[in-house]
Write a structure and sequence with these properties.
- Helices cover about 0% and strands about 35% of the residues.
């Protein structure tokens, strides 16, 4: 007849003190050895933890002697619960007057704290939700979907005609969660576009 065995658990998220046991994240059935999760766990930074390392022990119920043990690593599977974020709500960028088409303007970068290896949850794509149009009805700015590079889509912005633009850029993760921010493209760098002229020299007689 096999001697009765009692199972114990310690490691991360497990307190042995009765005072703080209420905060335990895991527990083990002392008779069957089944391990249970007691609380919802967050895997994502800044406060989450993707891995939990536990130690399970089997001890003789009669003598208390350890009969065996196992190292257990609990890996949390990511869910798409983080919205991409920009580090500010409004960006201000200077654009060169008379810049050519496809001139680089700036690069947008959004951060997503989800697992980049899980279902594309942290894979961010970029789009322009609110663009501007030139007098011919053409969109003035373009953005690369994967990199966030913003460039001019037309040639030769004219500072004398208009010296600032505002567009709205969105970042969307693999699960469809989206955030947007505004970019103020103003104070267009001055380019001397008028031909100089001289006043006539007037001569007066004595």
């Amino acid at each position: 007849m096999l001697a009765p065995v009692t199972y114990y658990l310690d490691g991360e998220g497990i307190a042995q003190s009765a005072r703080v046991k209420a905060d335990n994240k895991f527990t083990i059935n002392a008779t069957s050895g089944e391990i249970f999760q007691l609380k919802a766990l967050d895997r994502d930074q800044p406060h989450g933890q993707p891995l939990w390392r536990l130690n399970a022990y089997a001890k003789s119920s009669q003598t208390g002697k350890t009969l065996g043990y196992a190292d257990i690593v609990v890996c949390l599977r990511d869910i798409n619960d983080n919205v991409p974020t920009f580090n500010q709500s409004v960006f201000t960028v200077a654009v060169a007057e008379n810049a050519s088409e496809h001139q680089h303007v700036t690069t947008m970068l959004a951060e997503d704290l989800d697992d980049p290896l899980q279902d594309g949850n942290a894979q961010v794509t970029y789009s322009i939700e609110q663009n501007q149009v030139d007098p011919s009805g053409r969109l003035i700015f373009a953005i690369e979907k994967s990199s966030g590079h913003i460039s001019t889509a037309v040639c030769c912005l004219d500072r004398e005609r208009r010296d600032n633009y505002t567009i709205r850029v969105a970042a969307t993760d693999g699960g469809g969660l989206k955030v947007s921010t505004f970019i103020c493209l103003g104070n267009i760098n001055f380019f001397f576009s008028f031909l100089p002229f001289f006043l006539p020299l007037l001569r007066f007689g004595n």
